[in-house]
Amino acid sequence: MSKSSKPWSKEELQAIVNLPTQLVVIIAADGTFDNIGPSGDTLLGWDLDLIYGQKIENFTHPDDYQQTISNIQSLLSGKSEVVKEFTNRCLTSDQTYRWISWTARAHDGRIFALGTDVTQKIEFEEELNIQALVLESITEGVIICNVPGKIVYINSAEENLFGYGPEELLGKQMQMLNALPPEESRIGLIDVFETIKQKGVWIGEWLNVKKNGTLFTTSCRVTNLDLNGERHLVIVQRDITELKARQQEQDELQNRFRIFFEQSILPMEIYDLEGNHLAVNQAWMDLFQVSHDEVFKFNILNNPSLEEMGILPYVRKAYAGEAQNVPAFYADLKKAGLKGRSRWVEAWMSPIQDEQKNIRELAVILKDVTESKETSEKLRQTIAEREVAETRLTMAVSAGRIGIWDWIPGTDKINWDSTLCEIYGFRPGEFSGRVSDFNELMLPSDRDHLWKMVDRAIHELKPYVIEYRVIRPDGKFRWVQESGMAFLEEDGMVRLMGTGIDITDKKLAVLDQEFLSEMSEVLTNSFNYLENLQKMANIATNYFCDGCLIDQLNPDGNIKRIVVASKDPGMKERMQRLHEQYPQRYSHDHPLFVALITGKTMVIPDVIDYSKSYRGKYSAKYLTELEEVKLGGAIVVRLKGKDSLLGTITFFSTVGSHIVLDARAKWLAEELAYRTSMSIENSLLYLHSQEAIKSRDEFLSIASHELKTPLTSLTLQNQMRKRQLDKDNVKGLDEKSLRKMIDADERQLRRINRLIDDMLDIARIRSDRLFIHKEKFEFCNFVTDVLERFTPQMQAVGCKLTVELCPEIIVYGDVYRIEQVVVNMLTNAMKYGAGKPIRIEVVSNPVKVSLMVHDQGPGIDAKDIERIFQRFERAVSGREISGLGLGLYISRQIVEQHDGAMFVTSKMGEGSTFIMELPLNHD
Ligand code: ADP
């Protein structure tokens, strides 16, 4: 207080003391109330008279008492400053306390104190403190302000946020923290109040300014707070500047990624965890030409085609978190059930993980490799084809055994590769390469031709191909096909290069075919088969062997040499002589008979060696002579017709010749044997048919003669009778002569009948219609009956007949047909027996009965023995004795149909015995 100021008047002082909000108190030194202003009654409700003299402790809150007393005492003692300010709680008349803020000073041993009721303020602050305790622990910034915007509370997080020190913002206007211009800020605030009013809370972002002027954004949550009855706002704030920046960054990134994904030229797709398509980019759709709708039908995990394509394991691994590099595969859309085009692709599969490393999606980037795949496929094919071609060539060269040579004309060094050496019969490197040595190998007749070709090739620089024959050092003969080409070297020199192929087999195959067809022609050349065979043997001899023999098998089982051919005429003659001197008799191990019987082609590499095994079996002389012939090897092949063995054909080589009787020779021998057999058989058939035609012609003339004879006689008889009748000379026709005539006619008619019967039988036999009707009959009685009927004829020709019969014997057969046989036997005996006695004999044993008819006729030549049983065959020629040559043929057929046999034994000049054997039936 300034000394110059006017002192308070008593009234003025009284007026201050009477202020209703101020409490004026004077405290005595003993701590009792000495005086108290009237507001003591107003503020605390006390009857002032009661308070005087009372100790202040009775009116002070126990918790505040100590502090109050110490303040009073310190003032009284004059130790402290003159003025003390403190706050304590004073008791009111209704036993509550009110907060009083005191300003006190000591004067004359008393305390003069002025108190203001601050209860409301203190209570507000207390309430605020409780909130602050909570709010302080929050990491977010918190400000509490009243409605006019004064900050009443701010937590340390908020102070830090704005960059202010402790308490620097308390009591300040909220406005200072807002970065928006005042007008905007005001409008914003109105919105805040409105929203809170409606929803109880406002949530949003504020743009703030820090103490240092930096702007930053916070996310805010503003709510109402009632503090001590007064409305306040609680603002909870969090700095989201960084978050926003990050968010923005992320947004930008996402945007960039979206653009990258959509615009990338690499086809990309993203799948969810279930394998469904989440997204594909344009490049992907362009690649597969799949419509947008189709795309989302696809599921990478459920598609069986993926397994087929071999992709599934990669997909699984990628879903398991392992990025995959999938080698090129054919994305077959049809198999995947999609409409679009299939492509060859490579793929990178990458699992997309969140921050916690959880797999969220699967990203797949594809690379269209169709073109390169197709190109590489084409390339691969081309390479493969080339490899095949090369392999083929190598194979062809080695399998085709193509030899290669080269030669610089004028030099004496021909280079051959190992194959060519082999072709010419040399070991690799063995050939000298000298032109003269090469010439040596070639057949002289081919040599000139080759060199002419070579000369032309050198002069015209043209390729040539030539075939020539060579004799190899081992003596083997080969055909070589040589291809050559001349070309100019850089230095102007001419070089010849070429190949050589052994074409012997091919050549021989062609020649062999030509040879065989020539042989076929030769063998069918004329009807004189012996001539044909000889010609064939001569040609074969010049072609593949040194000589050839053909031995024919005669019906008597002997071998007859019908053809001998040899390059050496002397040898030919010796071979023929050898056969004649030592005709081959049957021997089971003689090669001729082995071949003949077994049909096996006998290949004898060394005849001399082979013949040694004959020692002891054949005469030493024969063997010595055989050795002298100097046979090398031999191949013996059987000659066989359809139903008969014809003989053998032998091809031989001579000692020291180049001929090799190898597999080819054997094949040729067999082919020739086959053709020869056909030729012989055809010739024999021809001869037989010629003979048959001859017999038939003879038969026809005989048959007509045979028929004519009785017919002529009947005609003559008839004419004679007619003439007699015409002359009315019937006297000559008395009974006796009539009977004679009738008998004679009957004989002639019988003869005609017999002839016709025979001819009919032949027809029946030929068509298998000679039926046999069997019955049981006693054979000796049957023979006796036939003989009886025959006796007159026998007597007529003056033939004596003796009969020897066996005891009774039953035969099962066709009586009529067997009688026909017996009659034929008797007729022939009578006919050819020259009137000499005939003996009939019947013998039997348990299995058969034999009827023998012995005559003493001219006998039958051995060569005719079988022939006479054939059709139209007669041993006697012409018309010496009448007959058709059918009787024996028919008889044998009948007997054979009874399972019997019919044959003849005879000797020329000593008669014949015809025998009929019939089996006995014991049933
Ligand atoms: P044919 O007697 O009618 O000629 P065959 O078939 O009965 O006919 O006889 C065939 C041939 O057999 C006769 O032509 C004859 O040459 C000969 N032949 C038959 N029987 C005898 C015989 N007993 N003695 C001699 N030759 C016979």
Annotation keywords:
923 residues; five-stranded antiparallel beta sheet; 27 helices; 43% helix; 25% strand; elongated
How many β-strands, per DSSP?
Answer: 32
Uncertain spans, ≥5 residues at pLDDT below 50? none
Task: Indicate the percent of residues in helices.
Answer: 40-55%
Strand order of the largest sheet: 2-1-5-4-3
Computed over alpha carbons, the radius of gyration is 75 Å
Quote the average pLDDT.
86
Structural class: alpha+beta
Shape: elongated
Q: Ligands bound here?
A: adenosine-5'-diphosphate
Through-space gap between termini: 187 Å
Assess the beta-strand content as a share of residues: 25-35%
Largest sheet: number of strands, sense, barrel closure: 5 strands, antiparallel
Number of helices: 27
Furnish the topology, listing elements before pairings.
Blueprint: H1 10-17, E1 22-27, E2 33-36, H2 39-44, H3 48-51, H4 62-76, E3 83-91, E4 97-107, E5 110-117, H5 119-136, E6 141-146, E7 151-154, H6 156-162, H7 182-199, E8 201-209, E9 215-227, E10 230-239, H8 241-263, E11 268-271, E12 277-280, H9 282-288, H10 292-295, H11 304-309, H12 312-319, E13 324-331, E14 343-353, E15 359-368, H13 370-399, E16 402-407, E17 414-416, H14 418-423, H15 435-441, H16 444-460, E18 464-471, E19 477-488, E20 494-502, H17 504-523, H18 529-543, E21 547-553, E22 559-566, H19 569-581, H20 591-598, E23 602-604, H21 607-611, H22 620-629, E24 631-640, E25 645-654, H23 663-726, H24 735-766, E26 775-778, H25 779-797, E27 801-804, E28 810-813, H26 815-832, E29 838-844, E30 848-854, H27 887-897, E31 901-906, E32 912-919
Parallel strand pairs: 27-29
Antiparallel strand pairs: 1-2, 1-5, 3-4, 4-5, 6-7, 6-10, 8-9, 9-10, 11-12, 11-15, 13-14, 14-15, 16-17, 16-20, 18-19, 19-20, 21-22, 21-25, 23-24, 24-25, 26-28, 29-30, 30-32, 31-32
Helix pairs in contact: 17-18, 17-23, 19-22, 23-24, 25-26, 26-27
